[in-house]
Design brief:
There is one protein chain. With about 180 residues, the protein is mainly beta. The chain has one domain: Jelly Rolls. It contains one helix and eleven strands, in the order E-H-E-E-E-E-E-E-E-E-E-E. The strands form two sheets. Strands 1, 2, 5, 8, 9 and 11 form a six-stranded antiparallel beta sheet that branches. A five-stranded antiparallel beta sheet has the order 3-4-10-6-7, with no helix packed on it. Strand 6 and strand 7 form a beta hairpin. The protein is globular and about 40 Å long. The protein starts with a strand and ends with a strand. Keywords: Signal.
């Protein structure tokens, strides 16, 4: 299986550390590093080295890359968000969100990983792209949520809805 990193502009994701284990268990209970699939292996190898700011509306300007390294994503309060497409999950007024443009260079499976629970919509040409798989990352990995989409070449937008904190960590990779 060949894995290729894609350039993604993500202005709506941000960092929060959460484990795939239930909330009452902490990351400190993990004795060994988890085995991660090749697509997400860089999650464990890379500390956040950059920050990409999420947009508060759907008029995104910059196309900053979100790739294989965990990236800090500061988000917006509910009242300042203006989603271009109504999120499939009703926004909670006490939570955070944002929008992140993504440019896909070749068709494949887009994998988005977050370190916190949040709703993710992938938008293309004004419509929601159906997710193919979703779940938690491996225990003790720090990946709280993973969502996969089949994508073709072009521009997309991730909408992050109901993140528990004003900042989370994210990464996105494309599997051929």
């Amino acid at each position: 299986m060949r894995v290729r990193i894609i350039a993604i502009s993500m202005a709506a994701l941000s960092p929060v550390t959460a484990s795939a284990a239930p909330a009452e268990k902490s990351e400190t209970a993990c004795l060994a590093a988890p085995a991660l699939s090749p697509e997400i292996a860089d999650w464990a190898r890379n500390a956040s080295s950059k920050t990409i700011y999420a947009y508060g509306d759907d008029l995104g300007a910059d196309w900053s890359p979100l790739g294989p390294a965990r990236t800090a994503l500061p988000l917006h309060k509910f009242e300042s968000l203006r989603y271009g497409i109504a999120p499939e999950r009703k926004p909670d007024v006490f939570k955070f969100g944002g929008m992140i443009p993504i440019e896909v260079k070749k068709p494949g499976r887009l994998i988005v990983a977050l370190d916190a629970g949040a709703w993710i919509d992938l938008i293309r040409d004004g419509a929601v792209v159906k997710s193919l798989a979703h779940g938690h990352g491996p225990a003790c990995s720090g990946i709280r949520k993973m969502v996969e989409y089949d994508v073709t070449q072009g521009r997309y937008q991730l909408q992050i809805v109901n993140a528990p904190t004003a900042s989370i960590h994210a990464m996105a990779v494309l599997r051929d």
